[in-house]
Design brief:
Length: about 190
């Protein structure tokens, strides 16, 4: 066998291997690539019985090349009794003549003050390289002593039944010290 013939055989074998590798790679299921996260600002008073609040937005960024069907978010407040949550959402049975184009719909019971399950009301598909946001929600609380709480976010869809936790969460804690007590310690 000549050197040229052997080289030709190796080249053909290599081409066959590369073709097989490409076929195998095409068959691999690419995972969803979502980045759910909060952006927020806080206004905290260290005086007793004064209102504190967080203004936030929950974003879902699809950096992958696959769409997500029926995207839904869950915002969880712990402990629920500490917080008062509000945002721009409607209920499925709302009979408003005009709904906002970017409106969100709350799909769980209004009596549940711990979890807020929301979905875009007019959007059933989140495309690749798209970001959707639940904007400008507000969380308020009044403290007369020490407080501690967290706000977590999750995203769900037909392709992510188990849910995906946000890359960040909002944690708050503090202690209210009466001014007289503060100055007595000095």
């Amino acid at each position: 066998m000549t050197l040229e013939r052997k080289l030709t055989e190796w080249t053909e074998m290599q081409a066959t291997y590369f073709k097989r590798i490409e076929e195998l790679l095409e068959g691999i299921e690419k995972p969803l690539q979502l980045i759910p996260y909060f952006t927020y600002t806080t206004q905290i008073s260290h005086d007793s019985n004064r209102e504190n609040y967080i203004l936030g937005t929950f974003h879902i960024q699809n950096i992958g090349d696959k769409p997500v069907s029926n995207p839904m978010i869950c915002i969880k407040l712990t402990p629920a009794e500490l917080f008062d949550f509000s945002g721009k959402y409607i209920y499925p049975d709302t009979k408003q003549p005009m709904q906002l184009a970017n409106a969100w719909e709350r799909v769980n019971e209004a009596t549940n003050k711990e979890e807020y399950w929301l979905r875009p009301s007019k959007k059933t598909m989140m495309e690749a390289n798209e970001t959707i946001s639940f904007p400008n929600f507000q969380v308020r609380w009044t403290a007369d002593s020490a407080y501690n709480g967290s706000i977590q976010g999750f995203v769900y869809g037909d392709e992510i039944k188990e849910g995906l936790h946000a890359v960040n969460q909002i944690n708050i804690n503090g202690t209210i010290v009466e001014r007289e007590d503060f100055y007595e310690e000095e």
